[in-house]
Amino acid sequence: MKTIVRAGIALGAGKPLKRVYVGLQDSKIDVISHEELTSYEDAELDIGGWDRIISPGFITLHTYLSLYPFRFRIFTAKENANDLISTFSTNDSYYFSLLGAYHLLKQGVTTVGFSGPHLDIMARAVSEVGLRPIIVVPVGCGNSPPDWEREFRTLFSRWSHKGANNVILKVCDQAQLRDVLELARENEVAVLIDNTVTITDDLDFNQIIGLGGGSRLDLDIIKKKGLKLSFTPSYEVSKFPLSEFKPSVSLDLVPSFDLRQEVSYSATRLLLTVEEAFNSMTSWGYSQLKINSGVLNTGYIADLVVFQYSEPPSFPLDFSSPYETFLYSSYSLETVIVNGEPVLDGGVPLNVGLKDVEEGLRRLEEIDRKSSERTRSVEKG
């Protein structure tokens, strides 16, 4: 499929570009030019305009996707996450994950890492929405499968292939760290290290990503060994300069569930510059997983988002402050492209319909009904 995109500002190309044409072909970025693309006169899709910003799609390395409908009550401790998960059927996990992926799509996220129960089913929901799933198999965590190694190998054979590792590991238990790293080394995948687990100087593995920011006690070792971080800005304490770690962003289960809002916190709290905050949800995140995306350059995977700035409150484009415009201005997401294929156009998701959303909401009501019945039963007892 050939697609041409026009944009008043293009971000992610090393420096902001004004008034550019971007040509996509065979899932890759084929050409970027200030001149009209005469070779794309036969393009199947012609989108954008000079009042648009084009950017690489966003990535979040870790979240609890199936808990998305319950994020407010979990955040305020009205519900226990593990208690909720124990009530989920496979279909519940599918539809709740679909609702979460639908939300992320509407925010401009194109790749999402997630953990939780029924990982295979969750991955199918993410794919159905049109996003790229990154399955995070937990080890020693509250929601870990009993045989985590078997779970990993099964999912890895199903969802990963040469050049695309869509299954990674997460470890929450210090005692199991070395076993996890050995399996990760064997399969050349990244490992997320919970902030309760300490990275020691004797570990010889470079695809370690520490979860957390300034709260980690092993930052000196992470820096010394050239390892990376993935942090949740609204949860983290300050650490200056955080940019030396080139962190990615994990949404965890923040109430807003808005990646751009999260990275704006990192800039306003002076953890990162505005440009670095932009990189944290694009190029830095993708590079940590060795995915050839997150950059607006020829040869990269065409994961792109297009925002419209034609009227207030997003209007106008400020060409002298493009990153600030992008992060802080209200916006209208117009188009999302994953692997060169549109999955949202005109602000409308193309793969998920109202019936899917309604089924997810129906299942949420059913969970709430069962929860109320259990509560009444306990009170009577």
How would you describe what is shown here?
By secondary structure, this protein is an alpha/beta fold. It folds into 2 domains: 2-56 and 300-349, Urease, subunit C, domain 1 (Roll), CATH 2.30.40.10; 58-288, Metal-dependent hydrolases (TIM Barrel). Helices cover 33% and strands 24% of the residues. The chain is built from 12 helices and 16 strands. The chain has helices at residues 71-75, 81-85, 90-107, 119-129, 148-159, 177-187, 219-225, 259-268, 274-280, 283-288, 322-328, 354-380, and strands at residues 2-10, 17-25, 28-33, 45-56, 58-63, 109-114, 132-139, 167-171, 191-193, 208-211, 228-231, 248-249, 304-308, 332-338, 341-345, 348-349. The protein has an 8-stranded mixed β-sheet with strand order 3-2-1-4-13-14-15-16, with helices on one face. It has an 8-stranded parallel β-sheet with strand order 5-6-7-8-9-10-11-12. Helix 3 (90-107) packs across helix 12 (354-380). Keywords: Hydrolase. InterPro entries: Metal-dep_hydrolase_composite, Metal_Hydrolase, MTA/SAH_deaminase. GO terms for molecular function: hydrolase activity, acting on carbon-nitrogen (but not peptide) bonds.
CATH domain class of the largest domain? Alpha Beta
Structural class by sheet pairing and helices? alpha/beta
Helix content: 25-40%
**Main sheet attributes: strand count, strand direction, barrel closure:** 8 strands, mixed
Number of helices: 12
Mean pLDDT: 92
Tell me the name of the CATH homologous superfamily of the largest domain. Answer: Metal-dependent hydrolases
Give me the strand/helix succession.
EEEEEHHHEHEHEHEEHEEHHHEHEEEH
Strand order of the largest sheet: 3-2-1-4-13-14-15-16
> What Rg is obtained from the alpha carbons, in whole angstroms?
21 Å
Question: Oligomerization state of this entry?
Answer: single chain
Instruction: Indicate the overall shape.
Output: globular
Taken as a percent bin, the fraction of beta residues is 15-25%
CATH fold call of the largest domain: TIM Barrel
Number of domains: 2
The CATH architecture of the largest domain comes to Alpha-Beta Barrel
Poorly predicted regions = 375-381
Number of beta-strand segments? 16
- The N- to C-terminal Cα distance equals 63 Å
Organism: Stygiolobus caldivivus
InterPro entries: Metal-dep_hydrolase_composite, Metal_Hydrolase, MTA/SAH_deaminase
Protein name: Amidohydrolase
GO molecular function: hydrolase activity, acting on carbon-nitrogen (but not peptide) bonds
